[in-house]
Amino acid sequence: MANKKKVLVTGFEPFGKHAVNSSWVAVQELERLGLGEAVDLHVCEVPVEYQAVQGLLPSLWKEHKPQLMVHVGVSGLATTVTLEQCGHNKGYKRLDNCSFCPASQCCMDSGPDCIQSVLDMDTVCGRVNDSGLGVTISVSKDAGRYLCDYTYYTSLYLGQGHSAFIHVPPLGKPYSSQDLGRALQATIQEMLKLLELDHKHHQHCNHKHQQEHEHY
Q1: Measuring CA to CA, which residue among 140, 24, 123 is closest to residue 80?
Q2: CA 113 – CA 129 distance, rounded (Å)
Q3: According to its UniProt entry, what is the function of this protein (predicted)?
Q4: Which residue, 115, 143, 163, 190, could crosslink 155 as a Cys pair with Cβ 3.0–4.6 Å?
Q5: Measured between alpha carbons, how far is 216 from 197 in angstroms, rounded to an integer?
Q6: How far apart (Å, rounded) are the C-alpha atoms in residues 128 and 206?
């Protein structure tokens, strides 16, 4: 298929008390499951380092030019699979795996305080929860001001909002890697359907607009 959608999904390496990072385990499970024939899925493990993220994300967007980039991170506080609506620019005080944090404590010096995803996470959440998956999905507007939030903001900035962030709980609290993989698969498939609808809606509006002009 020439017009395959390209989706890039990232997970994080281990850090702190997360000797196994459930985000990368879940992403590997998703890679095994795939996103269906029409989607070209690429996965990548991201270091828990501000400077590595700064270098890696622009090259991922440039090289792959995905329709959607989805970042997955672990949250020790999460008990559901949590969809993040927005990324934040300021407040990065926590040290990374290299004991570093940005001197300015922000992602982009001249960037807006907050960038929203083009996806309406409440809609995605509702659809996945209604599908009887057996994994609970919820929505959050605070990705935590650490590498997760930093990565999300940077990606939203680079991809004009065509990015998503999903927080997963640690393995076994309460979900297995298989559960998390299935949850990622179902969630990303809903995200792609929503993007497709938006795209068709815009095409339809533009077409209608052109037709109106032709009457003059």
Answers
A1: 140
A2: 30
A3: Removes 5-oxoproline from various penultimate amino acid residues except L-proline.
A4: 163
A5: 30
A6: 30
CA–CA distance, 193 with 196 (Å, rounded to integer): 5
Supply the range of the domain harboring residue 162. Answer: 5-214
Q: For residue 146, give the CATH number of its domain.
A: 3.40.630.20
Rounded Cα distance between 21 and 17, Å, is: 9
Q: Which ranges of 67-176 does DSSP label H, i.e. alpha helix?
A: 121-130, 147-158
Predicted confidence (pLDDT) per residue in 56-114, tens digit: 999 999 999 999 999 999 999 999 999 999 999 999 999 999 999 999 999 999 899 99
- The secondary structure of residue 77, as a DSSP letter, is T
Backbone dihedral angles phi then psi of residue 115, each to the nearest 5 degrees: -125, 130
- Rounded to the nearest integer, the mean pLDDT of the chain is 93
DSSP alpha helices (H): ranges in the chain?
Answer: 22-33, 50-64, 121-130, 147-158, 177-214
* Backbone conformation region of residue 65, classed left if phi is above 0, alpha if psi is from -120 to 50, else beta: left
CB contact at 8 A, 154 and 57: yes
* Residue pointed to by tokens 């998703």: 30
- Tokens representing 30? 């998703």
Amino acid of residue 215: H
pTM given for the model: 0.92
How large is the average pLDDT for residues 19-23?
Answer: 96
Query: Active-site positions?
Result: 84, 148, 167
Q: How far apart are CA 177 and CA 175, in angstroms?
A: 7
